[in-house]
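Methods: holo model generation. Sequences were used as deposited, without trimming of termini or removal of tags, and paired with ligand SMILES retrieved from the corresponding compound records. Each pair was processed once, and we did not select among multiple samples. The sequence and adenosine-5'-diphosphate SMILES for this entry were:
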Amino acid sequence: MTEIDSTGSARPESIKAVPVRHPGRWVSGAVILVLAAMFVHMLFTNKNLDWTTFQKFFFDGGILKGLVATLELTVIAMAIGIVGGIILALMRLSANPLMSSAAWLYIWFFRGTPVLVQLIFWFNIKSLMGDISLGIPFGPTFITWDVNSLVTTFIAAILGLGLNEAAYMSEIVRAGILSVDEGQTEASQALGMRRLQIMRRIVLPQAMRVIIPPTGNETISMLKTTSLASTVAFTELLKAGEDIFNANYKTIPLLIVVSVWYIIVTSILSVGQYYLERHFGRGSARELPPTPLQRLRRNLTTFHAKPPAVQEGSA
Amino acid sequence: MTENAPANDVMVKAEGVHKYFGRLHILRGIDLEVRSGQVMCVIGPSGSGKSTFLRCINHLEKIDAGRLWVDGHLVGYRQRGDKLHEMHEKEVAAQRRDIGMVFQRFNLFPHMTALQNIMEAPVRVKGEPRQVVRERALGLLDQVGLSEKVDSYPSQLSGGQQQRVAIARALAMEPKLMLFDEPTSALDPELVGDVLDVMRRLAEDGMTMVVVTHEMGFAREVGDSLVFMDGGVVVEEGDPREVLTEPQHERTQNFLSKVL
Ligand SMILES: Nc1ncnc2c1ncn2[C@@H]1O[C@H](COP(=O)(O)OP(=O)(O)O)[C@@H](O)[C@H]1O
Ligand SMILES: [Mg+2]
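and the model returned the structure below.
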């Protein structure tokens, strides 16, 4: 709003009225404050929480190593999930019935069984496969690998989490692709673009707006699901904590150490998701919403700003 | 069939073109010819198959019977001896490069600026150098009166401006033929004129055009021929001024009495 329009006339005086009172808000606010105070009191007085142990192990070498392993596992499993999800989604949307039913079968299987079961399965793959050999089915083999040396606990964890994630991601990607208007594909075809080109340059970038928010949720969920890998003897964050409290019996403080690390990483991921959504939202809203930093800066400047000139004019 | 191949100066030739959607018989034998440099306007009631015919011309729809040539080449097929072979997706795409199309709902790429919309196909499809394409794109934006909207996203443009960018986008591929499917039907009345002006200048510059439209004024002034379609057939074809003032067929008379 401009304060004075082009003809030079002043803005009309704004309404001055007594605002509605909200006594309920004050009461509920007071209740919450009391509960919060009790909680903080408990945090500092309960002996079992043992904050010195927390401090001692928060930056412990083993914990940090576990944290790095958790991050690696999350990133690699999500990468497999996203790439696999895109491939599965394209297969499902393919005109080739063999392709689409293969993708359907994959999704059906991996969504139908618990991820923990899949993890344990990959960990025990040796007993199923023996050795892996490359060759012609029922014919000669060319190369043979020992599965145990091939499938380490890290690989088992990656396969278990990533292949399962691909099934979920494919549904997200498919929904995103289907959300893009048919006219976009037609316009691209009319310009002489090829199918893959259209997918990569036109459809997927627009599908991203629909794909990113649930993918952010999946990533955050994956970060926490990696803790299941502790059950197959892979040392990630939780297992690192367990190894320590199995030795010193300080279970609760170490679980808090682990939890705080999970919360920190989750928070960072949420911020990343916000900026990613902003990036792929370009062109959709006439003006992008301000980032928290921009909003903070704007609020600060309006806070310090002098009252607008209109007030003087209308007074 | 080769003896029916069109003469050199014929840009579009349709011969007994039929199209079915499932069991619906949508195009029921279309015969038409558009000469190079000419503007053919197509009118007709909603659902008469105008869009479908236009989409057949650049193989967005496959025809079920008949023959369709653009610039002397069969659309979507190759003739070897007396056998037709379906073209590979790659060849179809190559054929479409020379045919520009403008849609009723613009279909600009919303995640790209006006300039990026125009540059996309020449750079990615033809592989032309960015700098060359950029110059041409800026020239085209100027030509459609939008040089100050270079970096605007489609959502920041009015309908009329979006449609002019869409025309510039099609022209950037330097097509031999332009297809327009009711390019002004989605526009507020006061925005129609700007788009028609751009199309009129394009026609004056000698572009071959097939225009499905309800703008009878445009058809009368710019069109070299006017086709009235109804129920999947060409009911009447002729000089726009004659067809519009003295329609020969009753169905044409009925239609015109409703829209004029
Ligand atoms: N993809 C499709 N599948 C089934 N029917 C279609 C399809 N496209 C168009 N039609 C039908 O074909 C007829 C002609 O459509 P169209 O060519 O769009 O007419 P016009 O452009 O003259 O209004 C309509 O009855 C329409 O419902
Ligand atoms: Mg139509």
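Chain A has 14 helices and two strands.
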